[in-house]
What we know:
CATH class of the largest domain: Alpha Beta
Number of domains: 2
Shape: globular
Oligomer: single chain
Largest sheet: 7 strands, mixed
Strand content: 15-25%
Number of helices: 17
Helix content: 40-55%
Strand order of the largest sheet: 11-12-13-10-9-14-15
Structural class: alpha/beta
Low-confidence stretches: 1-27
CATH topology of the largest domain: Aldehyde Dehydrogenase, Chain A, domain 1
Amino acid sequence: MENCKSLLNAERTSAPVGSRCQQGVLEVDFSEIPLAIHWAKECFGSGGNGKPLSISIEDLQRVKDALLSLREDLYSCAKEESGRTRADFDLELKTLLRYLEAFQAAHPGLQGCVPRGVSVWIGSSVWPIHYGTQALLANLFAGNALIFKPSEKVTRIVLKWVQALRELGGPFQTVQVIVGEKETGRRLVCHEDVDLVMVQGTYETGMRVRQDTLSSPGKEVLLFLGAKNPVILNREPDLDLCKKILENAFVCAGQHCMSTPLLFVRSDHLEQTRMMILRAHHEMVASDDAGEFWFGPFQDQARLERYLKFIHVLEKEGARLEKRGNRDRERLESCFASATVAIFPALSRTQTRKMESFQVEVLGPHLSIVPFENLTDLEALLGGLSFGMASSYFGDPSEIQGILSRNPLGTIALNHGSFELNPWRAPIARKKSGNHGRFGQQLLDQVCLERVQK
């Protein structure tokens, strides 16, 4: 309890202090939200001579060093709190380290920022360290005062990580963490003195925040949401490629905003792809201690139940199941389930527009394989989808350049998985799916009122 208090208190009596602590997770009273925002406003512009605090290259290196030194402690916390697997966690930290290195390289060329003021980050349980750190660094670099509201599913690991960052001193000491259930986040984003709201989560969560903030038209709201991201396979498959496709579809139980649960494959390669996918799945699950269930836990039992019902929807809409997802009955408290692989027969654009399995975002480790006869057929299928943040294309880019220019599928990874995209340069979200938040360098332009070009 004292550690939680010291994290939020930061040697200032005006900072919010939790009033209850249950099972090591701190909760706050709603009355403390105005207190947190008051302190954030005090921190804003506290860099001296009216200038905002900002982070240096040396600060970025210290963040990197702290991440490496705490790697095992953070993994132990993530495993205990939410059942994270080693493969999933290592991929998160690897991606974050790449981001920090790119930020360091770009830092000398970045121009001064005109900050917005008080910023709020509403995080999800998916890769909370990676995405939360991106939001934190971008806001501190811009000079904004940040209040972090993590998902109630990953409160402990976020507290541990932010506490380590605050101990670095300087601008990191201005970051606050408010924890609680969903209503806490709703009241926080609606406060009149919050200038910028950033939300990572499902489409439904983003739209709820958008509705909650309609009465504050001057409040900037950035949404980082998931959707149906596709992989297009326009060449012969191989085992390593199929493993990459499965990793991109199943990591974080498919709850990652860059997961790709749809695979479009040329009809003449369908059978070969099917065999390779099943072989890749067998080898991947055999190489991990968790076996069939290494792909990561669901956020809660409700999400797990929705995923299991979705499997019946796949069958009802004509899919042939090659692998059927099942509940992990040995770890019922951790919300684990195995993966689903489904193959659809030839479909038309009209069909996909009406099919729940193609239009509704169902978070879970599943891959739907859809054959296409030619590029005209493929474009018709893509036209019936609502795209997410990133897609992958494997094949000769010149063959599909026109289709990609007419169907902006978020950020395109050419002959790479979506998780291999440069985390500093990408991804750019699609507004068609309700998104308009950006990551990496473009995020700076969104958290600032403007960036001074010299």
